[in-house]
Write a structure and sequence with these properties.
The chain has about 350 residues and is of the alpha/beta class. The protein has 10 helices and 13 strands. The protein folds into 2 domains: about 250 residues, D-Maltodextrin-Binding Protein, domain 2; about 90 residues, Periplasmic binding protein-like II (D-Maltodextrin-Binding Protein, domain 2, 3-Layer(aba) Sandwich), CATH 3.40.190.10. Helices cover about 30% and strands about 20% of the residues. The strands form 3 sheets. It has a 5-stranded mixed β-sheet with strand order 2-1-3-10-4, with helices on both faces. It has a 5-stranded mixed β-sheet with strand order 7-6-8-5-9, sandwiched between helices. A 3-stranded antiparallel β-sheet has the order 11-12-13. About 5% of the residues have low confidence. This is hydroxymethylbilane synthase.
């Protein structure tokens, strides 16, 4: 009798975009592990349930991950697929990011109502209304374009675009390029906002796969899904956010590059109204070889190291350590320039909005 096929349960949110992302990961896994069956288990999160408030005002730091992590803790699923930008900078002690897939374009996009064809954010009229619930986007864009008006918009991408198309409130939206690309709606992007206009969120555009730290079988299954340049950049960005003690809704913006083993991280901390800005940029040179030969069996009695909550046994541990240290160093540079009081003031203002 043939051996019974192994079944691996993959946890995901129910939203259309989340399912597209999870199916993408499952397809990649199925190609490299045809002998294994991957079963998607869906569930809703706090962020999915609450659609009438801005994310920053809800008062939770893990809006899109908490319920999923409960299922992982109870062994109801074996791995979770997340938009990495939604993941807190600190994970539960027994969980880690076991793989980071290749990053889609991390930038933000301007999506305009059809009546504004040919317009850019630089040429929008005074009083034009842009919809976004991201304090990071609002802070940067208010600073650059004080003549524009920003209003909250919640809901999945379909809902947001419907609200835009109705034309009663918004002239445009600011959305992640990655989400638009994955939904097949790149034709609706009016302008990609480059870092000189709007830096992106930590890990934006990347997919992270969360597992139990000690589940070596999952490490083996995920080995080939890691995109090393993306992983290195995201470790640096997450190291920054963890040191700043900022959540995914904090007014922290980044831009990173990895070219010929030269890793650069540029980061900004802003007041919620964009009036104050602190910026820091640093670069390091990484080892020439970013991967390494590794045997999990050899470490049976050892704890595998985490870097910004990431475990990747087949990626250079030195490179990951250096990337995390870069993020920490950039954060400390921001603190030296006075970012601390700005972040505290932003946290207090957000807390007031929750009352």
């Amino acid at each position: 009798m043939a051996d019974k096929m192994e079944i691996v349960r993959v946890g995901s949110r129910k939203s259309e975009l989340a399912m597209i992302q999870t199916n993408h990961v499952v397809e990649m896994l199925q190609k490299v592990h045809p002998e294994t069956e991957f079963k998607i288990v869906t569930m809703e999160t706090i962020g999915d349930h609450i659609q009438d408030k801005p994310l920053a005002s809800i008062g939770e730091s893990n809006l899109f991950t908490k319920e999923l992590e409960k299922a992982l803790a109870l062994d109801e699923v074996d791995m979770l697929v997340h938009s990495l930008k939604d993941m807190p900078s600190r994970l539960p002690s027994n969980m880690a990011i076991g793989a980071i897939c290749e990053r889609e374009d991390p930038h933000d996009a301007l999506v305009l109502h059809k009546k504004l064809t040919g317009i850019s954010i630089e040429t929008m009229k005074e009083g034009s209304v842009l919809g976004t619930s991201s304090v990071r986007r609002v802070a940067q864009l208010k600073r650059k374009f004080p003549h524009l008006v920003f209003k909250d918009v919640r809901g999945n991408l379909n809902t947001r675009l419907r609200k835009l198309d109705e034309g009663q409130v918004y002239d445009g939206l600011v959305l992640a390029v990655a989400g638009m690309m994955r939904m097949g709606w790149e034709h609706r992007i009016s302008q990609i906002l480059k870092p000189d206009i709007c830096k992106y969120s930590v890990s934006q555009g990347a997919l992270g796969i969360e597992i139990k730290t000690k589940n070596r079988r999952m490490h083996e299954l995920l080995r080939q899904l890691n995109h090393v340049p993306t992983l290195i950049r995201c470790i640096a960005e997450r190291g920054l956010l963890k040191t700043l003690e900022g959540g995914c809704s904090a007014p922290v913006a980044v831009h990173s590059e990895l070219e010929e083993n030269r890793l650069t991280l540029n980061a900004s901390v802003l007041s919620l109204d964009g009036s104050e800005l602190r910026e820091e940029e640093k670069s390091i040179t990484l080892p020439q070889e970013l991967t390494q030969e590794h045997s999990l069996d050899a470490e049976t009695n050892e704890e595998m190291k985490l870097f910004s909550s990431v475990i990747a046994p087949w990626v250079s541990q030195h490179a990951m350590q250096e990337a995390e240290a870069l993020g920490v160093s950039v954060a400390k540079g921001l603190f030296d320039k006075g970012a601390g009081p700005i972040l505290e003031a932003a946290k207090e203002e957000i807390a007031e909005r929750r009352k």
